[in-house]
What we know:
Strand content: 15-25%
Largest sheet: 5 strands, antiparallel
Amino acid sequence: xxxxxxxxxxxxxxxxxxxxxxxxxxxxxxxxxxxxxxxxxxxxxxxxxxxxxxxxxxxxxxxxxxxxxxxxxxxxxxxxxxxxxxxxxxxxxxxxxxxxxxxxxxxxxxxxxxxxxxxxxxxxxxxxxxxxxxxxxxxxxxxxxxxxxxxxxxxxxxxxxxxxxxxxxxxxxxxxxxxxxxxxxxxxxxxxxxxxxxxxxxxxxxxxxxxxxxxxxxxxxxxxxxxxxxxxxxxxxxxxxxxxxxxxxxxxxxxxxxxxxxxxxxxxxxxxxxxxxxxxxxxxxxxxxxxxxxxxxxxxxxxxxxxxxxxxxxxxxxxxxxxxxxxxxxxxxxxxxxxxxxxxxxxxxxxxxxxxxxxxxxxxxxxxxxxxxxxxxxxxxxxxxxxxxxxxxxxxxxxxx
Length: 401
């Protein structure tokens, strides 16, 4: 059975972050791949950008899912598996025997029927010059800088963390003889911005504040600084802790409506957000959140990484004191101006609940205003977007244990 070579896979997925390990194998006559990134945010960024994209015209559509493995233990560096953090591994037989199952965490898995024609095209792509221009509409579109195709083992990954980390994978669906029509240089989807700074425009300047942007963008990464532009108050700069977090925030936030206006989010040319110099007019429009206690992802291995979802009309609430009732929770949201369509405590953990609002726009505003809302002397509400919904009849909601 033919397959896509490891350098080809590395070329695709390294555009979204550091690839630590790759394991390929065949199961049920299907070529499958597991790819391990150093953190969940990077894996999510790759999934959001590549899932559903075509490697070639009308063929080799990437299908990306989360795997249930947390770490790859690669025994050999060869054409089936590779540990880019340990180039000194021997060349021997490899495969899924190098994968150690662990606790269930979000990961990516790819499956698909092998295509000799697609393999030949991939090899032609890799045998071209060390720089491949990325262009052409409909094929992992969006042109950007040339992609270096140097040997992955030449890159230095010394000291990279590997244990207990999530794995990415993808699906390479089968292609028939006509797949030759799509043969040609590899095209990739948008890359992770090289900067941690995002430019936000078309904001509601009458209502937006640095704290509001910190709270909203903090759902997808740790916000270090926010600057609303002094001479253009419908625009702002937001500095995230990592480029992958900036990419994740941009993916979810671009064209999202906040306080009645559709935001535009794009990478900034700036590498950092500068604090105002002494005596420079600022009117409190620039704030530093580096030491904020409200960061969601500062703790390594935080479970918050596993609960990052697109904006939705249903919010996930946590840190609810046992003394607070359903009516009190609903009343807190309604008194702040929101319409509550449904509410349900988690069946197995009453410290958490789902609350369904009238629309996605309303939920976005509610998250901004209700996150860190004080419920008791020592308890502040934690709010994020949910992947689940409350059933219309009030029965237990989907995907919640």
